[in-house]
Amino acid sequence: MVIMTIFIHYECLRVTSNLLQGFKMGPRSQILVAIIGIFTGHTLEVWLFAFGYYVMDAWLNMGSFTGEFVPGPRDYIYFSVVTYTSLGLGDVFPHGSIRLITGVQALVGLLMIAWSGSYTYLLMQRLWPLHIKGMKK
Architecture of domain 43-131 in CATH? Predict the structure, then answer.
């Protein structure tokens, strides 16, 4: 799942960069497209881990969840979002081997969010002067 997450993130940023170069847009529109592309990547990555939790829980019997958890897509996605963002609300508890994947997902989420921040910073560094120049007209 880690390798697939990195691949998804790279491809979302690559496709987003290609879209930004392929269309004539103002700086604000470019930032909006970039943020939508980044958010899409993070969403796909969360869903990938949610599916992994489902497979480990329902098919492979590698662990389970307790607390305020009802097996179903909504709760697997919820747990994945809380883990990916390192929010860790503590209302759902993983047991068994799933706990290891939970820690890995938190680390991966941290890295992907940092990567997104770096990408956004570099984009803003390039676009901000254009935005200021456009405001002076």
Answer: Orthogonal Bundle (1.10)
